[in-house]
Design brief:
Two copies of one chain form a homodimer. Chain A is α/β, with parallel strands linked by helices. The first copy, chain A, has helices at residues 28-36, 55-63, 127-136, 150-155, 157-164, 174-181, 186-193, 235-250, 255-272, 279-283, 286-300, and strands at 3-6, 10-16, 19-26, 43-50, 66-74, 80-86, 93-99, 119-122, 143-147, 169-173, 200-204, 210-214, 217-221. In chain A, the strands form two sheets. Chain A has a nine-stranded mixed sheet, sandwiched between helices. In chain A, strands 3-2-6-7 form a four-stranded mixed sheet.
């Protein structure tokens, strides 16, 4: 039951049709840690922050079993900052500002205390840094899950191809799957991507759910139909955190258990989008998570009798 | 086990990124009849065609138990014609040409032999004509299902509102649900639309599946992930035909049976898009349909244990 999470811890400023967040806490590793810690503790965090990252936010993570030995604090630099704007169709967004700050010289280190972790979640980050973390592990983790994005396909495709050969599960969204494979059909895209290294592929389709591909098998989980998506920031990372958190907690990496992991990730993501940033993730209880998983069961459950 | 289908029987000319169809058979009632006749016969068809509609096509429908007493043949006019073009994203299309021809003066008549039918499928048509068919029924059918489109919301909203009060199930796509309700969130849109008359609402999301709303319940069925969507024309009508065909065959209009009906409609629609026009619908066997329904079961089936 040990999980390493690599990614950003950052400040975000978000605009949606419903309001502006002001400067709030964000970052891929932050969302992954909040989600995963519902199912598994400790979460061994690897990231980098500046002098300006609030101490209370670190304490809030520690209180959830998030280990911070691998989080470097650069005392003379500011934390990574991203500002973005969503329109009514929350599936796309405009980046308004990106300030790399501490991220520019980030060189992730795996602390000795994290060695032997069985699960590794590589949040979206420069592929060479994701690879560096894999290479630092003295024993290869039981399962390596990787998130990435179109930016790295444009700017660091060679490195990305190397990392892909080292991971077990790749998570991308539908347009990234199309870009990575050169195929428009997601079924064809999955076939191509599964030749590039990963044995499992998760294609995230935002409000349209997620697909899991493995060999000839495919599984689909919808997103919960919500009255309002208030802020989709972090939904993908929360999904990833719930997914890998469930797998790490159960130590079962079968296709069947990955289905469950996808439903649990989807349930957590459905909370994440209800308020700005990590607000909702800090509030929810185990009972609320179970209630929502039951809603997923009700949403897709049907009985059918085939003709004899 | 008696079903009336109202809608168009027409010629289409379709362009997709994969080719051009030339002039082929289309029309909402054609697709509905092909789909429904897999599950229920007879299908009591109400439509209008011109002198140019091929006799073999009428015979092919009759061979599947489609009654044509309600299909008016105008000997001095041409059949309705539609030409359209799809791009790589098959969720939207451009209309290249529309020739109403026989449709301009269409006045549907319910033959005496159709009276007493328990199920009525109102395919996409001018709302006043849909209403006329309802009013001609001496006994109100057990279930009235209605398809419509944005064009009627723009041009005949008052009539549409009157028909909505008379039907049990409304089928629209996601953008139409938003237009009809003035709500962007599909959950909020469904709440509004269910106040307008229908007790059940199906929102079709094309490759992203379909949602069924009824009171506080919601059910979601994905579309089957396909290697290639060759031609989406008629997929919505085929879905509707499978849906109402299953309900008419089982005479069970419970929410649970509607879930099954949606899966069966989705399975048939997944065949429809594999070739131009009705080609694939003419080929498939009961075994192939069952195989595909089993693929839906596999696609969404998962087991989950909630924490105690």
């Amino acid at each position: 039951m040990s999980l390493i999470v690599v990614g950003t811890m950052a400040f975000d400023a978000i605009e949606t049709p419903f309001g502006k967040s002001g400067q709030i806490i964000g970052g891929s590793a932050t969302y992954v840690a909040y989600a995963a810690s519902n199912f598994v503790q400790p979460v061994n965090q690897i990231s980098v922050i500046g002098y300006d990252f609030p101490k209370e936010e670190l304490e809030a993570l520690q209180a959830r079993g998030v280990q911070l030995d691998g989080v470097e604090i650069k005392q003379d630099e500011k934390s990574f900052f991203w500002a973005g704007k969503y329109h009514m169709d929350m599936n796309t967004r405009d980046t308004l500002d990106t300030q790399l700050n501490v991220l520019a010289g980030f060189n992730p280190k795996v602390p000795d205390s994290y060695q032997g972790s069985e699960f590794l979640m590589l949040g979206n980050l420069m592929p060479s840094l994701q690879l560096s973390v894999i290479r630092q592990m003295k024993t290869r983790p039981k399962l390596i899950v990787m998130d990435t994005m179109n930016f790295w396909m444009d700017s660091a495709m060679q490195d990305l191809e190397i990392v892909l050969k080292e991971v077990d599960v790749l998570m991308v969204n539908d347009s990234e799957a199309r870009q990575l494979s050169g195929q428009f059909s997601l079924v064809k895209a999955a076939k191509e991507i599964l030749k590039m290294g990963p044995r499992f592929l998760v294609i995230k389709k935002g409000e349209h759910g997620a697909l899991l591909f493995h060999e000839k098998d495919v599984f689909f989980a919808p997103a919960l139909p919500l009255e309002e998506v208030f802020d989709p920031t972090g939904a993908g990372d929360t999904f990833a955190g719930g997914f890998v958190g469930h797998l790490a907690a159960t130590r079962d990496i079968s296709f069947n258990n990955m289905k469950t992991a996808i439903i649990k990730g989807s349930a957590l993501a459905s909370f994440c989008v209800e308020k700005f940033g990590t607000t909702r993730m800090k509030e929810i209880s185990a009972e609320q998570i179970d209630d929502r998983i039951q809603q997923f069961v009700n949403l897709v459950n049907f009985e059918i009798k085939l003709a004899e």
